[in-house]
Each structure stands twice: as C-alpha cells, then as structure tokens.
Design a protein that fits this description.
By secondary structure, the protein is mostly helical. It has one domain (2-199, 222-416): Up-down Bundle (Growth Hormone, Chain: A), CATH 1.20.1250.20. It is 76% helix and 0% strand. The relative contact order is 0.17.
C-alpha cells in the first residue's frame, strides 16, 4: 500500500487493470518485433530489407491515423479498442502459422506488418483518448510515466523472450515445424487476451461533446473535423513543437534495423547479442521511467525535452564507432534513458494541453509523427547502411540529432512551457 501511495495512478483500480493488460500485450508485441527483424535478416542478409519492415509498418499510419482520430472522437473508444486488439491478435496468429508451415516469404511478412500498422492506426488514438478518462487529471502524469514503464519493461523482456524461443526452437525456415520464430508470433497472439479482457470489463467510453455540433452525423462532416484537430496542433506552439522535435530526432537517430548487423558483423556475435542490444536500450528507458514514476512532475518539461534529445544524439554518435561490445551496450542504454525522459514529458505536455473532445484527433496527428519518425528513420538507416556501411549510417544520424536539439533550443514554446500553468480547460500552451 505504501508503494501505491507513492504512485498515484495505481490507486485507481481501473487504471491498474489497464496497466497489467498493457504490460502483457506489449511484451508479446516486442517479442514479435524482434523476431520479425531477425527473420528478415536471416532470409535476406540485407540492411535495406530489414529497414523496409519499418516502412511497411508506418505507411498505413500516415494514411489512416487522421480519420482514425476522428473515429476516436466520435465512437465508443472501448469498442474501437476491442476490435483492433482482436484483429491484431489474428495478424500475429497468421504470421505464426505461415512461419510454422514453412511457406513464409518476405512479402508475407511485409504485408502482415502493414496490416498490423493499419490496425494500430485506429488503436493508438482511441487508447490515448481513453487513458485520461481512467483516473483524475491530477494523477495523469503518473499514468503517463507508468505507461512508459510498461512499455519499457516489455521492450527489455521482448528481445530476450525472442532469443530464448529462437535458440530453443531454431529458425530453420525451410522445414514444416513450429520454429522458434513461429513460437514468438503465437506468443504475441495469445498476449492480446490481456487487453481484450480489460477492455471488455470497462463501461462504454463515449467522448465528451461540448455541443451537438461536435458530433459527426454525415460523411461530409469528417473533413471539417479533421481540419479542427490539425488546426489545433498548428496553432498551439507547445503541442506542435513537442511533436516535431520527436519526429526529427527519431528520424535521424533511430537505427534499430542495423542492430542485427552490429551483433553479427561488427561484434561477430549471435542472436543473443542482438537481443541484448535491443534490451540495453529498453533497460535504460525503464530505469529512467522508474525514477520519473516516483519523482514529482518537473515544471520545465519543455526544456527537459530539448536536453533529452541532445543526450540521445550524443550517445548515438558515440555508439557508431564504439570498439567495445560492453561499452556499446552502455551507450545504447543511455539512448534509451534519454528517449524515455523525452517521451514521458512530450506525452504529458500534449495530453494535458489538449481538450478531451480533440484528444483523438490530436493523438492521431501525434501518432503519425511519433511512429513515422523512428520507422522512416529505420528505413533511412538501412538504406544508407546498405550503401555506405552500418557504422557511418549511425554516425551521420547521431550528428543530425544533435543539430535537431540545437535548432529546438531556440523554440519559445518548449522553453517557456511550465507544467501546471496550462490547463486542459483552456487548451493549454501558447498559440502562434
């Protein structure tokens, strides 16, 4: 009970159920993510082919997130999430079956990844809009931190679970057998049951409309509703800056597509090294999130975001030509910690500064930038790595991220933002 008193969000039973279900579901998702990267590495031996996973994952997000955000602001968010979670479980099950039967092709993987990305486009804005309704607004920063903790714990354990299954089951893709990779996908399909159970138990969660005019009754009303969400982001300097700095930092510095090649070719190691490198990033993220979960919310969160991006870029630059595997793991951990701090503060800024009736649409805009930055960055890293080499690709990205931090250090919106001064009622932040 003393721990619950230190972590305000966990004092609420509904949020505790959400947290537990999210932890299980995300563990399965990160297990599958690592398995897909390793499978394409084994099948193609191409950094660009591994980078294409991210491209196929993000393209549906770019196309569908805005209309999905409108749906999140009009429909029962609980029902939307039940449908998306069940459908994503079927995608994972299908990937597991084609792998287990030995008929999997690279295009199968790309197609299923794209379908999963399309479903996530509807899942993310609905989930972001629902969470602030599960507990009092004053405890919402604690919930954001705990969501990050669940994400990071899963990010730590997912690659380890993947490596365990692969080592035990093997990854011979030419035989009809339940290979280790197929087990990863089937494990993910089962893991969705946690969130499905949690959403099933919730009461309906309809959006809060200020007036009848907020409701969309005709198809032609979707366009104006979309424009309202985009207009809010454009006018609100704090919200806009928090999204853009994340996009550019992750576009330049993300290089997850190259980690299998660092493990295998640079350090001459195996699948366990790949899992350890992915886990190192997550361990750093988790450590930072745990520390932040028990600290009082920082007041100058905008300035903190800029510093976190700078640290992220410096650590990425140092990792590029790091000669020692142990030191490389430490540097990856630092990148994870910096990304975690930035993520927690950015999400807090955006969701506190956004009225409930717009959270789905603003969350959709955020999802486009938040997901397309690292995913496009992953493809960019693989594309450049295929042509210029793995290490040079990472070096260029790290230096560019440092430049992003320098550019946004001149942003008045982020520098002046103070947590607690802006409220949900007035839309938060400065406008420009």
């Amino acid at each position: 009970m003393r721990f619950l008193s230190r972590v305000p969000a966990l004092q609420h039973a509904t949020y505790r159920a959400f947290f537990a279900g999210s932890l299980v579901s995300q563990l399965g998702a990160f297990t599958q993510s690592a398995a897909v990267a390793w499978q394409v590495t084994v099948m193609t031996d191409s950094p660009e082919a591994v980078g294409l996973i991210a491209l196929f994952r993000v393209l549906p997000t770019i196309v569908l997130s805005l209309p999905a955000g409108v749906l999140a602001d009009q429909l029962d968010r609980r029902k939307v999430l039940l449908v998306t979670q069940a459908a994503m479980a079927l995608v994972a099950l299908t990937l597991g079956l084609v792998t287990a039967l030995g008929v999997v092709k690279v295009w199968h993987i790309y197609a299923l990844v794209a379908l999963g990305g399309a479903l996530q486009s509807f899942d993310i804005p609905a989930r972001h809009a629902l969470v602030p309704r599960l507990l009092p607004l004053k405890h919402f920063p604690s919930a954001v931190t705990l969501n990050s903790v669940a994400w990071r714990v899963s990010e730590v354990l997912g690659p380890v679970v993947m490596a365990y299954f692969v080592q035990r089951g093997g990854y011979d893709l030419s035989v009809v057998a339940i290979s280790g990779l197929a087990t990863c996908y089937l494990f993910n399909a089962i893991s969705y049951s946690g969130m499905i159970w949690m959403y099933w138990r919730l009461p309906p969660h309809l959006p809060e409309f200020n007036s009848e005019g907020d409701k969309i009754r005709r198809f032609r009303d979707i366009g104006p509703a979309l424009r309202e969400g985009v207009s809010f982001v454009r006018r609100n300097d704090v919200v806009r800056s928090s999204m853009l700095i994340d996009f550019w930092a992750t576009f330049f510095s993300t290089a997850d597509a190259l980690l299998p090649f660092y493990a295998r070719d640079v350090f001459q190691l195996d699948v366990w090294a790949f899992s350890q490198m992915r886990a190192a990033i997550a361990i750093g993220s988790l450590a930072a999130a745990l520390v932040m979960s028990v600290l009082r919310p920082a007041k100058r969160q905008g300035v903190g975001v800029i510093w976190a991006v700078l640290v992220y870029g410096v650590a990425t630059t140092a990792f590029a030509y790091c000669p020692n595997y142990a030191l490389a793991l430490i540097l990856l951990g630092i990148t994870g910690a910096a990304d975690s701090v930035s993520t927690i503060w950015r999400q807090t800024i955006r969701q506190v500064a956004t009225p409930d009736r717009l959270r789905g649409r603003v969350g959709a805009v955020a999802a486009i930038l938040q997901r397309s930055g690292p995913q496009l960055g992953d493809y960019e890293a693989g594309f450049v790595g295929e042509r210029l080499g793995t290490r040079l690709s990472v070096l260029v990205g790290g230096l560019a991220c440092i430049g992003v931090a320098g550019l946004w250090s001149r942003s008045d919106g982020l520098k002046r933002y103070e947590h607690g001064r802006e409220t949900e009622a007035d839309g938060g932040g400065q406008t420009s």
